[in-house]
Amino acid sequence: MSDLDQLTQSLARNLKRWRGERGFTLDTLAARAGVSRGMIIQIEQARTNPSVGTTVKLADALGISITTLLDHEQGPHVRLVPEIQAVRMWSTEAGSASTLLVGTEAGGPVELWSWHLMPGDSSASDPHPEGTVELLHVTAGALTLVVDGEAHTVPAGTSAAFEAHVPHSYRNDGSEPTDLTMVVSIPPVRREGR
């Protein structure tokens, strides 16, 4: 079985599991995530590989990290994630990439990301659920962080924090690669009817 097949199977199994744990019908999850009911059915039957954007929307709607949605094999206290198991979520032909390093569900989903942006590349994100916070630290180059239409220059050595329930994007307007580490904290989702 290829890595892609394993990822598709894990996503199908975990989406069904978490949808059930939240008490969400297909229609409820579709409405919360802004993803069609048909797409959710295809994902749960492991018949499709959704885009990164669709995967993020589903994880956000369920109130879990992408890590948990893709694979729920977490140990009791310490979980080590070797570099080979980190999940590349986005990349461009120019060499830009974002990699989900590790995540947890403690107190609501928390994700740790590594980003590499080549000059001229950018990545846009849909708004996350209300209460979501992103923290980032630029380690090389300069990042143009656009939050709700307002651009902020974040040079190497500088950190930023923002509420991510509005449209936002990450851009490299410079001539050198930009590297950053980011933490995303998502508020927990309560079971339907509670």
What brief labels describe this structure?
194 residues; alpha+beta; six-stranded antiparallel sheet; four-stranded antiparallel sheet; 10 strands; globular
Give the CA-based shape: globular
Order of helices and strands: HHHHHEEEEEEEEEE
Helical segment count: 5
Low-pLDDT stretches? none
Strand order of the largest sheet: 1-2-3-10-5-8
How many DSSP-defined strands?
10
Distance between the termini: 40 Å
- Classification by helices and strands: alpha+beta
Calculate the mean pLDDT score and round it: 86
Q: Summarize this, please?
A:
By secondary structure, the chain is of the alpha+beta class.
Describe it for me?
The chain is an alpha+beta fold and 194 residues long. The chain is built from 5 helices and 10 strands. The chain has a 6-stranded antiparallel beta sheet with strand order 1-2-3-10-5-8. A hairpin with a 5-residue loop joins β1 and β2. α2 packs across α4 (52-62). The radius of gyration is 17 Å and the shape is globular. The termini are far apart.
Helix-strand blueprint:
Blueprint: H1 3-22, H2 26-33, H3 37-44, H4 52-62, H5 66-70, E1 87-91, E2 97-104, E3 110-117, E4 122-125, E5 133-140, E6 142-147, E7 150-155, E8 159-163, E9 168-171, E10 178-185
Antiparallel strand pairs: 1-2, 2-3, 3-10, 4-9, 5-8, 5-10, 6-7, 6-9
Helix pairs in contact: 2-4
